[in-house]
Amino acid sequence: MRKNNFPEEFLWGGATAANQCEGAWNEDGKGMSVADCSNYKPKADPKDYKAQHGITAADIEKAMKTDDVMQYPKRHGIDFYHHYKEDLDLFAEMGFKVLRVSIAWTRIFPNGIEDQPNEKGLTFYESLFSEMKKRGIEPLVTLHHYEMPLYLVNHYDGWYQRPVTDLFVKYCKVVFKRYKNLVKYWLTFNEIDSVFRHPFTTIGVVTDRYPKEKQEEIIYQALHHQFVGSALATKYLHEIIPDAKMGCMVTRTLTYPENCNPKNCLLALKDNRNNYFYSDVQVFGEYPVFIKNYWKKENIHIHMEPGDEEIIKCYTVDFVSFSYYMSMVSSIDAAKKEKVNGNLSQGVKNPFLDITEWNWQVDPTGLHYALIDMYDRYRRPLFIVENGLGSKDVLQPDGSIIDDDRIDYFRQHTQAIADAIDDGIDIMGYTPWGCIDMVSMSTCQMSKRYGFIYVDLDDENRGTYNRSRKKSFYWYKKVIASNGDDLE
Q1: Which neighbouring-strand residues pair with 12?
Q2: Which residues of the chain register pLDDT less than 70?
Q3: Which UniProt keywords apply (predicted)?
């Protein structure tokens, strides 16, 4: 058995999101969120990433008129809201040291504008975090994970309007004060770089409500308001819970040049720089020059209140967290090349990599590469808070699931993390995505499964919701028990 040198304090665990697992979408005073408009897309072609997202004003109106949960699967999720103690027992059995969850803003402020928070929502998360602590599991809490109040979308144009920043900060202060003795690891915005990939889900901007020529400016303006919100959330976290840590969270879409053609190398360099823009602002506390130059060239005007840039500069994050699922390839001849996609991103197919049945490339070496590159850039602790393999599980006659493909995927990626640690990279922890099966983000399917734990539920919301352990459950338990040494 190889000695991998994971630090003793390494945080092994898993990751979830309220909008994909909790369900109970209209219980105990919860308001409607953007996730409740996300519809089931069974016929979406895995190779057509544009067909997997996009919400129009008409879609929202339709969703608001129905209580249907089959067409809108995130409304039922896996009913974590009522099963969380059972699920925490399973996570504890695996040996989790940390669990990434998110707070649904609409459980605390149903419309986002209320003067007083919803006590039933606050009580639920207090119980959740307390039960985690009883089992020796640290909460890693995302404040804004694709679940902003729908009221703010319809009445404030989402994050495009500045008052939403103040409403978000009010919400943050409430949860910091309520959970100051329970939570010490926090994240601001999930995959904040996704603003252009799916603006409705990320910033509550419904693009068909605006002229096409103004959409890019509107998205950048909303993003600026989130950057200010991130900085202010960090400021108040440090004031209210002095020993707590705040992280940013981005999608690491590592991009390689197709070959050593200097033009391809330059294109990949720029693609990676664009990906880093979002974490650069939250780590370095300022907008990079190339973005300001781009705004000037494209006649994009971003309104900033007096003091905004100082706020962003003064209150930077403590660590950098990210999702990593695949790498991409840039090519000056991309229009002529076969494409692959994943996590609502698209690039040229890499002939050296395998792809999943959902057309996502598998590249564990890319995780090692990304960890070195990010640490060299930021010199802040890194946290891999999403990574995983979506696949269709097959129930055996005895009810077991032999998911060797998932085990192999995680074995290779865990080894890549170990190799990066050997290279001197400071890595806080690892929380594989969907440690329990959940409704998928883009197509809202249950059949695309990531978890170590199987949930008896199909795409049409048929099933018992019973939980069972997959073969990967026992493998990951062994990995954690050996602190990453036993990967076989």
Answers
A1: 430
A2: 1, 44-53, 342-345
A3: Glycosidase, Hydrolase
Question: 148-182 burial string, b = 16+ CB within 10 Å, else e?
Answer: bbbbbbbebbbbbbbebbebbbbbbbebbebbeeb
Q: Which of 22, 138, 217, 386 is catalytic?
A: 386
11-481 CATH fold: TIM Barrel (3.20.20)
The confidence score (pLDDT) of residue 344 equals 58
Residue 326 confidence (pLDDT) = 93
Residue 386 bears catalytic tag: yes
